[in-house]
Each structure stands twice: as structure tokens, then as C-alpha cells.
Write a structure and sequence with these properties.
By secondary structure, the chain is mainly α. The protein has a domain at 25-74. It has 3 helices and no strands. Helix 2 (16-45) runs antiparallel to helix 3. It is elongated and about 50 Å long.
């Protein structure tokens, strides 16, 4: 069985707890990255632009859910 087939089977067997863990981990990662990027922007510009900070938080959280979320969700999944 190929890796992609195993991943598809694993994703189909995830329960609500694993999905919640993935979303929470991805969102947490995104918020931390957004805070860091906002701090860098504030140190360069001297002020914090709220619209830029909100956009950065939104994009970072979405990217975190897509990238870190599956790692966290599959981290404790039952073996096939």
C-alpha cells in the first residue's frame, strides 16, 4: 500500500477528538507566528496596524491548520 493510500485511509478513520486536536494545534501555531510577524512589523514601522495584524493572523492560522493540523491529528491516530 502506498503512502498516499495509507494517508487517505488514516484520514477517513479520524474521530472528532483528532480533528479538534489538529485545528487547535494549527490555530495555535498560526497565532504564535502572527504575533512574531506583528512584532517584527511594529519594530520596523514603529506602530501596529490593526488591519495588517488581523490579516496576518487570519492567513497564519489558515496555513497552520493546513500544515501543522494534519501532523497533530495523525500524531496519535490508531495504527492501520
Amino acid at each position: 500500500m502506498t503512502l498516499s493510500a495509507r494517508l487517505r485511509v488514516s484520514l477517513l478513520q479520524l474521530d472528532a477528538t483528532a480533528l479538534r486536536r489538529g485545528v487547535v494545534a494549527g490555530t495555535g501555531w498560526g497565532i504564535i507566528v502572527a504575533a512574531g510577524l506583528t512584532a517584527v512589523e511594529a519594530s520596523q514601522c514603529g506602530v501596529i496596524c490593526l488591519d495588517a495584524a488581523a490579516f496576518t493572523a487570519l492567513i497564519s492560522s489558515a496555513v497552520g491548520i493546513v500544515t501543522i493540523g494534519p501532523l497533530a491529528a495523525l500524531g496519535r491516530a490508531k495504527p492501520i
